């Protein structure tokens, strides 16, 4: 498992993942994200507006956008799980990036989000995250559901 861009290993006597995530959630974000999803022919159009307040972080900030699907299932045909049906969430269908944020405090990324046959639009979500490309540290993340025919907007508020 990765936590803050680094390999996370649980403790020998205690698993502190909950405490570590809670502590990270209290930190001031290194970037701010606003996502706007609007319907388009054969899919949707996503706009991600990014602000990186600290000038020292801007040149290393990289923006990624992922389209993922939940509630997928696979029927196992061999091995120890033969005959079982496994359920899968957060399966990345498309990944775009990295897109460099650049030296300006604000930047934006526009992406056409196609809807492929076999994908269930009701189970799709779009996620954007900004990461420090040198350290792997996540500066901010945000996701919203993919709702065909409905315009959506979300922004990450500061803690």
Question: What can you see in these coordinates?
Answer:
It is a single chain. With 159 residues, the protein is mainly β. A 4-stranded antiparallel sheet has the order 9-4-3-12, with no helix packed on it. A 4-stranded antiparallel sheet has the order 8-5-10-11, with no helix packed on it. A two-stranded antiparallel ribbon has the order 1-2. The chain starts with a strand and ends with a strand. It has 2 helices and 12 strands. It is flat, with a radius of gyration of 18 Å.
Précis, in short:
The protein is mostly beta strands and 159 residues long. It is built from two helices and twelve strands, in the order ββαββαββββββββ. It is flat.
Put simply, the count of helices is 2
Averaged pLDDT, please?
87
Shape: flat
Care to count the β-strands?
A: 12
Strand content: over 45%
The share of residues in helices is: under 10%
- How far do the termini sit from each other? 25 Å
Given as residue ranges, the uncertain stretches (5+ residues, pLDDT < 50) are none
Would you tell me the structural class of the helices and strands? Answer: mainly beta
What is the oligomeric state here?
single chain
- The Rg value, from CA coordinates, equals 18 Å
Order of helices and strands: EEHEEHEEEEEEEE
The main sheet orders its strands as 9-4-3-12
């Amino acid at each position: 498992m990765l936590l803050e861009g680094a390999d996370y290993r649980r403790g020998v006597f205690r698993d502190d993942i909950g405490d570590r995530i809670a502590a990270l959630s209290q930190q001031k974000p290194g970037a701010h994200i606003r996502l706007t999803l609007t319907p388009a022919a054969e899919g949707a159009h996503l706009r991600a507006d990014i602000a990186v307040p600290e000038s020292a972080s801007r040149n290393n900030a990289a923006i990624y956008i992922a389209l993922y699907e939940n509630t997928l299932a696979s029927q196992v045909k061999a091995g120890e799980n033969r005959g079982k049906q496994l359920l899968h969430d957060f399966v990345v269908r498309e990944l775009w990036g990295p897109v460099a944020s650049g030296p300006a405090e604000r930047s934006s990324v526009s992406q056409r989000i196609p809807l492929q046959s076999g994908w269930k639009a009701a189970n799709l979500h779009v996620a954007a995250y900004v990461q420090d490309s040198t350290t792997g540290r996540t500066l901010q993340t945000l996701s919203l559901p993919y709702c065909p025919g409905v315009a959506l907007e979300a922004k990450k508020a500061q803690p």
